[in-house]
Amino acid sequence: MQHLRGQVEETIGAIRQSWAGEPTWGIVLGSGLGRLAEEIDTEAEFAYADLPHFPRSTAAGHASRLVCGQLAGVSVVAMQGRFHLYEGWSAEQASFPVRVMHALGARSLLLSNAAGGLNPQYEVGDVMVIEDQINLMFRNPLIGVNDDELGPRFPDMSAPYCPQLIDKALATARANDFLCHRGVYVGMLGPTYETRAEYRMLRAIGGDAAGMSTVPEAIAAAHAGMRVAAFSAITNACSPDMLGETTHEEVVQAADSAAEKLSTIVKALLTAN
Amino acid sequence: MLELYGQIEEAVAAIRTKWDVTPRAGVILGPGLGNLAEQVEVEATIDYGDISHFPVSTATSHAGRLVCGRLQGLPVLAMEGRFHQYEGYPLKQITLPVRVMKAMGAEVMLVSQAVGGMNPQYKPGDVMIIDDHINLMGDNPLVGINDDRLGPRFPDMSAPYDPELVDVGLAIARREDFVAHKGVSVAVTGPNLETRAEYRFLRLIGADVVGMSTVPEVIVAVHCGLRVFGVAVITDMCLPDALEVANVDEIIATANGAAPKLRALMEGILAQEAAK
User: Fold this and answer.
1) In angstroms, rounded to a whole number, what is the distance separating the alpha carbons of residues A32 and A52?
2) Distance from A204 to chain B by nearest Cα, in Å?
3) Chains A, B: CB contacts under 8 A, how many?
4) Is A103 considered catalytic here?
């Protein structure tokens, strides 16, 4: 990890040539939620390819740019399109943008993803505020010699997702009269969807939703000491005893239907303080 | 994964110089199934070393050659000897032969593996038709940029083992009058066997047997659109509260003892495919 700080500085250098903003929030927009970026009053945007050390998105349904500007009157830096381990990126690379957001000044991070619902109470199109996570990706972005300037060797994980932000998200959902679950997200390597036996396992070990992202970013954010709020759009219901086939198109469609609810919550969190 | 397409073409070309037939099925022979190769009406055998991009097998009791010929009248491509993650091969390389089978024209893949039994109803020498799996290898052969010519980015895994073939397998066992279980196989990296605590864990998460192979091949078979039939041979019992030290000679002997059942299942499936 000793090389990270130098890389982050070079990326920041490229961004600072055309944007001098002081973001309070970093935002990572997952499958189907990218259109929130369209609501940003854009001050600058960067194709990932133009940013040194940034990986490039290869996933379907993901744009590939960093959008800087104002959202709900708050200065933000938002990733439209993220990096997944199943694409071949290391966990360190996948979470590199979080380091950049932190270095730009963001101390709060908002993550969103599309996830399969394991909890039988969840329905397609529901949203879940992530209360905790299980890392089953067999990867960790902090492996290597630790850089103490970036964070501690052994980050505490007793509350990787900020309890106050979780409460605020749930209150926002109540105030706007829609359902928002609170649950545990299991991070899987992918790219295969889970088998029935794997879904049963994930439910048995305490997962409410499963997906292929978010965990590396949340770990890097915890390492950097950022406040994190994260949300899953439940895009398919993984009921192992009546499992249908999952297609990527269905996933994207369900994410769209959850996008409006997430947009409401996100704006409430941004303006909360 | 973008390098695979060219590798597959070169491996296929190497095989075609010695055997220019379109196989209907690919067969991967784990321990105990090795002697199924003796039943093949051999038309060609090719050492893995003579096939571009094929790794070379190092495991004990595994040979390393491709047997091409006919079984039950069906043209088959049989791997005698296979590759394991614990040998140090990347999963992409381990599974290259599966993609080669598909590229040669195969429609179905038959695979067998030796496993430890964790379901207390199982006995050494029993066979289990694999209904489903849990991948605990910590890796996936599809990681990397997807090549859409080979398969979809996010393969569905709701039924990796063809349910129809599972039923056919169970019917064959009833007809031939031997016990065949249907269950869940979990794949771990190895090469160490599991601790008692790990066996308890694997049982707790829903697995009936544990092995160190097959899951990567099956994931790639699903990715490239091969139907899959998988059989696990229970070579020893892994009951955490009555665990005995594993004896490799006994395990191999048990696997060989189960060979007739495996042969009946594999030949029965192939005969049904031949009748199609």
Assistant:
1) 26
2) 7
3) 87
4) no
Angle, CA of B250, B183 and B115, to the nearest 5°: 20
Option in B143, B155, B204 nearest A85 (CB):
B143
> Of these residues, A43, A45, A72, A86, which one is catalytic?
A86
* Residue A246: DSSP 8-state: -
Looking at residue A194, the DSSP 8-state letter turns out to be: P
Contact A128, A232 (CB under 8 A): yes
Confirm or reject contact between B242 and chain A (CB < 8 A). no
* B151 part of contact set with chain A, CB < 8 Å: no
Say how far apart CA A179 and CA B48 lie, in whole Å: 57
Q: Among B85, B131, B153, B189, pick the best mutation site for testing chain A contact (most A Cβ within 10 A).
A: B153
What are φ and ψ of residue A214, in 5° steps?
Answer: 70, -45
* Interchain contact, A201 vs B206, CB within 8 Å: yes
**Low-confidence spans in chain A with pLDDT less than 70:** 31-34, 57-62, 242-246, 251, 273
Contacts of B33 (CB under 8 A, 6+ apart): B112, B233, B259, B262, B263, B266
Side-chain half-sphere CA neighbours of B220 within 13 A: 27
Q: Quick check: helix, strand or coil at residue B167?
A: helix
Phi, psi of B142 (to 5 degrees): -100, 5
Write the pLDDT tens digit of every residue in B111-154.
999 999 999 999 999 999 999 999 999 999 999 999 999 999 99
